[in-house]
Design brief:
There is one protein chain. With 322 residues, the chain is mainly α. The protein folds into two domains: 63 residues, no CATH class; 217 residues, Type II secretion system (T2SS), domain F (Receptor-associated Protein). The longest helix has 44 residues. The chain is globular, with a radius of gyration of 24 Å. The protein starts with 13 loop residues before the first helix and ends with a helix.
Length: 322
């Protein structure tokens, strides 16, 4: 197989992507050639992507660009490729890689905190699944076969649902939310704020990366338009680009399309635009959105165990009345 033959995207967790971006970014920042950077990254992700890194390094030695070689081996998510390729053209790929490492690490830490909070409640929930039907079994309202079928079927369903949820979240983080899912997420009262915050934080962060890579605002929006799948994010990016073409200021275009949602954010971007430091202003706004997201995920980490304990109560009650 040619080293340039596209393979299926490699499934990596956010933690592993952060590790990979950090290793590559530090190596490039230290002045190492791309092929040696790839060779030096053989221990990242527990060594599970050694083959892909080796093929990418061979492709780089034959004259292929670093970002293209990574993309051909499925190591670059489609939404990151546009930013990294633009950064490579301007010689700022190390900066973008380090910024992406911070983003993936932050996302990984959010879910790790939630999982940590759910560990004990999940154990209690599984314990309740096996204990709840015991009174009915002792009273001979159900048979031993019914007990086994009920408990293991419920446990298997739980495992399948958790696995599907993990795959879905990983896919949506990498490929973006389709239009119907975005609209549904915005409509639901609890998820609406998360969906909008994620959009603002991700899109403005991507714009800041591209501006730091040397692109103009219109070119950056155009690159993002190609990178984004069909959905509300893409529609907002297209609208913002249209307003820029019509002569609007960047801050006005981002505010009118909902990519900036408050006066403070508008003031930050507008002031930076007037000072000729638009990339820094947009990055500051994106960082502020990420901080708000961290606070909301921390709230979820505190509330999620209560929800699981509520499910435990429902399981126990259902077993008593069965």
């Amino acid at each position: 197989m040619s080293t340039l033959a596209r393979t299926r995207p490699v499934r990596l967790t956010d933690g592993h992507r952060a590790e990979l971006c950090l290793s590559l970014g530090r190596g490039l920042n230290a002045g190492l050639p791309p092929d040696r950077v790839l060779d030096g990254a053989k221990d990242v992700c527990g060594g599970r992507i050694n083959r892909e890194l080796r093929l990418a390094a061979n492709a780089v030695r034959k004259g292929t660009g670093l970002v293209l070689a990574l993309d051909r081996q499925g190591l670059v998510p489609e939404r990151d490729y546009a930013m990294l390729s633009c950064a490579e053209d301007s010689g700022a790929v190390d900066t973008v890689l380090l910024s992406l490492a911070e983003r993936y690490e932050a996302r990984h830490n959010r879910w790790r905190r939630i999982k940590g909070k759910l560990l004990y409640p999940a154990f209690i929930f599984v314990f309740a699944i096996f204990i709840a039907p015991v009174p009915a079994l002792i009273a001979e309202r159900i048979t031993a076969a019914d007990y086994i079928l009920r408990t293991f079927a419920l446990l298997a369903l739980l495992v399948v649902l958790v696995h599907i949820l993990q795959i879905l979240i990983r896919h949506l983080n990498a490929q973006g939310w389709p239009r119907f899912a975005s609209r549904l997420g915005r409509w639901l009262p609890f998820t609406g704020g998360f969906v909008r915050l994620h959009e603002r934080a991700d899109v403005t962060g991507n714009l800041a990366f591209m501006l730091k890579a040397g692109l103009s605002m219109r070119d950056a929006l155009d690159e993002l338009r190609h990178a984004e799948p069909e959905g509300l994010r893409r529609e907002h990016i297209i609208r913002a680009n249209s307003e820029l073409i019509a002569g609007s200021k960047v801050a006005d275009a981002l505010r009118d399309t909902g990519l900036i949602d408050n006066r403070e954010g508008y003031a930050i971007v507008s002031t930076a635009e007037e000072a000729g430091k638009l990339d820094d202003g947009i990055l500051r706004y994106s960082t502020a959105c990420q901080a708000v997201l961290d606070d909301r995920y921390e709230l979820v980490a505190r509330l999620a165990p209560l929800l699981v304990f509520l499910l435990v109560v429902l399981v126990v009650v259902s077993g008593l009345v069965a």
